[in-house]
Specification:
Helix content is 45%, strand content 14%. It is of the alpha/beta class.
Length: 342
């Protein structure tokens, strides 16, 4: 598709990722497999393979699958807090994957150096301005600025604030933006603000090519933005890893569990360590339950607030055509508006 206006804006993102359209499909554990990566690549976008916590050999094979029948560039997304992270690093270092994205917690300086020494471009998520600054000091080649509107594990700062704290200050590396974006109109405005490209997750779950369970897609289609909620933390004695997911039976139960555990801790009938284990084990296997098994009542239906902007499953080609068309039209509208102020 011709993207005359956009081409003037997203050249840095195109050059960095090596694709026609710097629209990234963010890695999603249990969902972003080689099929999704190649489906995005086939449209000229950029796919990210999710390592999650799969065994190292399985990741090595999935990386090879991304290359089979496709020469589209892609990234491997490594979660630094995953128990299999060391094996994942080995798999990536031994592979042809051109770009590595660090997520979860931030990477160590040495992780970045190791990947760069192997010729990989390194990208890191940043959910605060201080993480963004530290990652640039560590030598990453680009940032994904992800706001708390996003699906999955999230930080606490919205994209609106991060744009002003990081993007507008021009950190000296390409910045891709994520969290709550699902329309071409918004893509156009992010590029006008200086983003090198845009990353989306929820919107791409709603592609026909995505292997997520049909029950999860059906739930996404009906969900409103306000149903994609961040996990509450009631007391700093019981720290919670914040996740944005759709409200369901399990999210309600999790809230009740935390309150019960705190009551027991206050009464002195439960120790802190035991309570923390109960909290941490509650969601184990939760995303697989929703995304693979289709149990949307009991599983973790991770979704961005962008879920309120999607209502149907579409072929990937149609999603790209829609995003690109809307973005081009919006740029024209902006140009026309600017012309009126002379
Ligand atoms: C179901 C789901 C699983 C996700 N898993 C991961 C992951 O494994 N690694 C990661 O870096 N980001 C993960 N994310 C975040 C996405 O890569 C992306 O940044 C996010 O979805 C953007 O927000 P949006 O959903 O509003 O577009 C996940 C998001 C979702 C919805």
């Amino acid at each position: 598709m011709k993207t005359t206006g956009l081409d003037g804006l997203w050249q840095a993102g195109r050059d960095f990722l090596g694709v026609r359209y710097p629209l990234m499909c963010g890695a999603m554990t249990w969902i972003s497999d080689s099929t999704l990566v190649k489906a995005v690549g086939a449209q000229g976008g950029f796919g990210c393979l999710a390592a999650g916590n799969m065994p190292g050999e399985a990741l090595a094979e999935e990386i090879r699958n991304c290359r089979e029948g496709s020469d589209a560039p892609f990234a491997v997304n490594l979660v630094t807090i995953a128990p299999n992270f060391p094996a994942h690093k080995e798999a990536v270092l031994a592979s042809e994957a051109p770009i590595v994205i660090f997520a979860g917690n931030f990477p160590k300086k040495n992780d970045v150096a190791q990947m760069k020494a192997a010729g990989k471009k390194v990208v890191s998520f940043a959910s605060t301005d201080s993480i963004a600054e530290q990652m640039v000091r560590f030598g990453v080649d680009a940032l994904i600025l992800e706001g708390s509107e996003a699906g999955g594990h999230i930080g606490h700062v919205s994209l609106m604030i991060l744009l002003q704290q990081v993007l507008f200050k021009n950190p000296g590396v390409p910045v891709f933006v994520a969290g709550g974006i699902a329309t071409g109109r918004m893509i156009a405005h992010m590029l006008l603000m200086g983003a090198a490209g845009v990353q989306m997750g929820t919107r791409f779950v709603m592609s026909e090519e995505c292997h997520a369970h049909p029950n999860l897609k059906a739930r996404f289609a009906k969900a409103r933005a306000r149903e994609a909620m961040s996990t509450p933390e009631y007391d700093k004695r019981l720290p919670i890893v914040a996740v944005r997911a759709l409200k369901n039976k399990s999210t309600e139960e999790f809230g009740r569990l935390q309150l019960e555990l705190l009551q027991q801790m206050n009464a002195g009938t439960l120790g802190h360590a035991e309570a923390q284990v109960k909290v941490e084990s509650f969601w184990m296997g939760g995303l697989k339950k929703a995304a693979v098994d289709g149990d949307v009542d009991r599983g973790s239906c991770m979704a961005g607030q962008s879920v309120g902007l999607v209502d149907k499953v579409q072929p990937m080609a149609e999603i790209f055509a829609e995003l690109l068309g809307e973005a081009e039209t919006e740029l024209e509208a902006v140009k026309a508006r600017l012309a009126t102020i002379g």
